[in-house]
Amino acid sequence: xxxxxxxxxxxxxxxxxxxxxxxxxxxxxxxxxxxxxxxxxxxxxxxxxxxxxxxxxxxxxxxxxxxxxxxxxxxxxxxxxxxxxxxxxxxxxxxxxxxxxxxxxxxxxxxxxxxxxxxxxxxxxxxxxxxxxxxxxxxxxxxxxxxxxxxxxxxxxxxxxxxxxxxxxxxxxxxxxxxxxxxxxxx
Length: 187
Hints:
Blueprint: H1 2-8, E1 12-18, H2 25-28, H3 31-39, E2 47-50, E3 64-70, H4 78-81, H5 95-101, E4 105-112, H6 117-130, E5 139-143, H7 144-150, E6 155-162, H8 170-181
Parallel strand pairs: 1-3, 1-6, 2-6, 3-4, 4-5
């Protein structure tokens, strides 16, 4: 984590927050620091709120050095991680494989919930063992708590917040609404 946190310093990128990241209590406890980051550190950066994660594809106008995605789901298919080409056209489950393959993001950083640690380890291990995805060295997985701590001081070009209708709960919808209320000029 320290190497990646150091790497993103001085580089510009996008932070994506899917409300389903906050499904479980450990991540819900990260909401106050994320709110503070959004209102202080990311102040001035354009913020977009959408219902579908795939909408992000149209909002990345030019290549950026990194994209951090706080999300319950990786939004890269296992098949892609094992060497398959990106899904065309993209869908919400494949949005980041599309952005990587199209050269719009140099590095993809999945900030996953603590409860997904074992899943993340299995997914990355199987991709490394398979060894057929040339973009794998540009894909990272980091526990969301650690990534949230590393947000301070990074250069944010834009923020994308979405709610995945298929996974939405009363709690995650309330969090989405709360984040949206912090940015009255969001698009």
